[in-house]
Specification:
This protein has about 400 residues and is an all-beta fold. It has two helices and 26 strands. It folds into two domains: about 220 residues, Galactose-binding domain-like (Jelly Rolls); about 160 residues, Jelly Rolls (Sandwich), CATH 2.60.120.260.
Length: about 400
């Protein structure tokens, strides 16, 4: 995608350009059962998922999830987090856990038996709730140890939308019923520097719309029906593709947003949440065309809805109305709950003439360390990366 663009002379844009395009989230604890921010004790929506045994779960020891088997001696049982629970730190958000770009999960797990028990680690992921084993079974020993399992078997659509994660203790009749202890579940892998949330390329999800919807101020979309949907949004196949709509003259412009870049499918539950907590900026490559050649600029405001759609304003930048793509880069400093983002969006300001709008990409970046910067110039707000075409 980047090879189709031409770099113009913007020093600010140079400072924020990533070394390589990549997809990555923040690695770290997902569950610890330390009761931080939750009523105590709290099993944090973990429960039996399937299997023959009967279990009781408790959090009577801070920092531990205890699973006590009490059914047929040593029968199999699978334990996972709740299908709507995203992570420990958020009780409000619901949907899938975003593990895009990460390499593995680690379980600090053990039992009170005398010998090893084979355990299958797994997730259920994507909107299809697909069961995916995370590597082969591992022999879990008595006492607590760390077991690392790969995420490499997940497709992109599965990694971005994990509904449950947990472990399946295989039948262990010789051990009898056991008490299992899970102290922490965390994600891991190299934290990379950039994530393209959406590029609206031809052939991408939902005919290139990638889950973009009209969020509010819907009356501004020419051809729309005033609802929170995709009516009035189209895919522009020119170049590599972009998301297009016509914004009505006179009043405040439309507010558009998307989830994790996969298909909306009629409900934002299908593509939330997104984890962008590792990043410092978001860059929106966007153009505005005026058939009357009125020129000037239109304000573009960036916003997030996170942790059950709490609204956060990022800032506002001017966009030249010249039919060219420009990079608008917004700082994410001071925002909260970016590991459970429901919607990432923009809202246009008022403009005198009808505008044809195109969004080419939405990209999150980590700002390079000072030693990697050329000079000491501050981060710019308006970059000049352009395509060779007009929208």
């Amino acid at each position: 995608m980047l090879s189709r663009r031409v770099l113009s002379t913007s020093f600010a844009a140079l400072l924020i350009a990533p070394c390589a395009a990549a997809l990555a989230q923040s690695a770290g604890p997902i569950y610890t059962w330390d009761n931080s921010g939750n009523p105590t004790p709290n099993i944090e929506a973990w429960a039996k998922n399937f299997g023959a045994n009967t279990v009781t779960l408790d959090n009577n020891v801070a920092g531990e999830l205890t699973v006590i088997e009490s059914g047929g001696a040593g029968q199999d049982v699978a334990i996972t987090d709740g299908a709507n629970r995203v992570r420990e730190s958020s009780t409000a958000a619901s949907g899938g856990t975003d593990l895009t770009g990460l390499s593995y999960l680690e379980f600090d797990l053990g039992h009170n038996g005398t010998g090893p028990v084979n355990v299958q680690f797994f997730v259920q992921a994507s909107t299809g709730f697909n069961f995916v084993a995370l590597g082969p079974d591992l022999a879990v020993q008595p006492g607590i140890a760390t077991y690392q399992v790969p995420l490499t078997g997940l497709t992109a659509n599965q990694a971005v939308y994990v509904r449950t994660m947990g472990f399946n203790a295989r039948a262990h009749a010789t051990e009898g019923n056991l008490t299992w202890t899970l102290r922490e579940l965390r994600s891991g892998g190299q934290t990379l520097t950039s994530r393209t949330l959406a590029n609206f390329d031809t052939g991408s999800a939902e005919g290139g719309k990638q889950g973009m919807i009209i969020n509010f101020d819907a009356a501004a979309v020419v051809g729309g029906n005033g609802g929170q949907n995709q009516v009035g949004l189209t895919h522009n196949p020119a170049g590599s593709g972009s998301l297009q709509w016509t914004d009505a003259a006179g009043s405040n412009g439309a507010a558009l947003s998307l989830g994790n870049g996969t298909a909306w499918g009629g409900n934002t539950f299908n593509n939330r949440t997104t984890d962008v907590s590792n990043y410092d900026t978001v860059t929106i490559r966007i153009s505005a065309s005026d058939a009357l050649n009125g020129g000037g600029t239109v304000d573009v405001a960036s916003f997030f809805q996170a942790n059950n759609f709490a609204f956060q304003s990022v800032g506002t930048l001017p966009l030249a109305i010249d039919g060219q793509f420009h990079d608008l880069t917004f700082s994410l400093a001071g925002l909260i709950n970016l590991n459970v983002v429901d919607q990432t969006g923009i809202n246009l300001g008022a403009h005198a003439n009808e505008l044809v709008m195109n969004i080419d990409s939405i990209v999150f970046n980590v700002v390079p360390e000072p030693t990697s910067l050329i000079g000491a110039a501050a981060l710019g707000g308006l970059g000049l990366l352009r395509r060779r075409r007009s929208a």
